[in-house]
Amino acid sequence: MMLPPLTADVSLYRSMAHYRSSWPASNSSGIAPSQVLPPDAFQPHALTNRQKCITLLTGICGALATGVAVGVALLDCVPLCVLTGPGFLFCVGFCDELEAAILAAGATAFCAKEAGDFCTKKFGPR
């Protein structure tokens, strides 16, 4: 008697069989954390302001690395900042400080060494 070859797919399928359930997903019940936590409570999936800053600077430094002028790279700074939550006036001040820091250090040096420090100074270590 000849057995079919045991492939990784078949092996994985068989080993995972005890994780499958006959209950339909729609029958599951429970509550989501967002239904219990107050709006300002810590939620693990939310980015901190420092992480948002680093993400914004990553995009700006990426544009600067392609040879885009500083002013052009910063055109979307205020609108993107406002989308992440802070108010318009905060974002205008933030982007002005960012532009001054980039011009003072030079785009390459700022992006290579000072971008993370800029966000840490602005929003703290976390």
How can the largest sheet be summarized?
none
Q: Which bin fits the share of residues in helices?
A: 55-70%
Specify the overall morphology: globular
Number of strands: 0
The number of helical elements comes to 6
Topology as a string of helices (H) and strands (E): HHHHHH
Q: Please give the alpha-carbon distance between the first and last residues.
A: 63 Å
What would you call the structural class?
A: mainly alpha
Verbal overview:
With 126 residues, the chain is an all-alpha fold. It has a domain at 70-126. The chain is built from six helices and no strands. Helix 2 runs antiparallel to helix 6, helix 4 packs across helix 5 and helix 5 crosses helix 6. The longest helix has 18 residues, at 88-105. 13% of the residues are buried. Mean pLDDT is 74; it is low at 16-23.
Features:
about 130 residues; mainly alpha; about 55% helix; globular
Give the topology.
Elements: H1 8-15, H2 49-65, H3 70-73, H4 77-83, H5 88-105, H6 107-123
Helix pairs in contact: 2-6, 4-5, 5-6
What is the structure about, briefly put?
With 126 residues, the chain is mainly α. Helices cover 56% and strands 0% of the residues.
